[in-house]
Structure prediction request, 240 residues.
Amino acid sequence: MAVGSAVMGLGPMIVLTGLRKQFGATVAVDHVDLVVHPGEFVGLIGHNGAGKSTLLKMLAGLLLPTAGTVQLAGVDMYADPSRAREKLGFVPEEAPLWDYLSAREFLEFVIAVRGKGDIAAAVELTGLGSDADRLIREYSQGMRRKTALAAALVAEPPVIVLDEALNGLDPPSAARTKAVLKERCQDGACVLFSTHIVETVEAVADRVVMMSKGRVVDDRCVADIPPGGLEKLFLGQISE
Prediction:
C-alpha cells in the first residue's frame, strides 16, 4: 500500500473482484482480483492479448463482465454507473474525440457534463497553447492524445485509468503529464495505467501488475525489483 493511502485514511479507490470476460469460447480476462489504494501509481503490463484493455474497459463500464464486480471509490460500477463514472477519468487506447470542435470547446463540453473543471489548467497540461483553438481534426496523433488526457483529468477525478495513453507523447508533454499524475496521487487519487514500455513503469510507477493469458501473474512494488530487472522478471513470468 502506498504512503498516500495511510495519510488520507481513505478506503480503496479500485476494487476488482473475480472479474471475468468471455467472448464465445475465448476467455479474455480470467477471474482477476485487484485492489488499488489512494496514492498508488500502478503500472499494468502484459503481452499483446493478455487482457489488459478488456480489463480496463470493464473497469470503465464500457464492457459488461461475464462475472465479477467493479467498485470505484466505494461505488459499484454496474449497480450505479453514473455515480461511479463521476469518480473516473479514463483514456482508452483509441480515445474518441469530436473532430469539429477545438480542444478548448471539447474541454468546455466535458466540464459542462461533469459540473467542474479548469480549462486553463487543462490546456496548460496538454502543452497545446494556441493550438487549443484549432479544430481537433487538424491535430496530430500526439496532440489528440494530449487532448484526451486533458479531458480525463480536467475534473480532477480520484480514479485515473489510462490505456496506453502515455505512449507516443513528446518528451516535454510526457514529463509534464507524469508530474501531474504524481501530484494527483500525492493528493489521494490513484493512477492505473497500461503500457508496453517497461522503462515507463520503472520510471513512474510505485507498483507493477503483470498479466498473462487473462490472469494476474505478478503484483509487487517496483522498489523491490533491482534496477533494470523488470523486463527480465516480466519475460520470465509470461514464458511460464
